[in-house]
Amino acid sequence: MNVYTRIYKTAKKHGMSVKEVAKKAHIGENSIYRWKVIKPSIESLTKVAKVLHVSTDFLLGQDNNKGIDLADTTMPLFYQGHPIPDKYIKMLGFLMEEDIHEKSPKYKH
Q: How far apart, in whole angstroms, are the C-alpha atoms of residue 7 and residue 58?
């Protein structure tokens, strides 16, 4: 998968078009489309990665792990393009703690 395709698919998951991503990243509206055939600059790619909340390595296909850390409050989380309220993030964190606790070998009966 090329850079453009990764951006397109990630933008779609956030409820944005490629043009919207470019506008939010403060780069030319058609810049990302050109990345189908040319390599993006590091500066532009970094701006796009920040808008999409992924790493530049992910966009370049060097890292398929675009996982998140719920404890990292510096990165907003989204669901279908909408920001997830803090109260739901805390609820999810609680559920994950319970799951981890149940699966931990030292707590098994």
A: 10
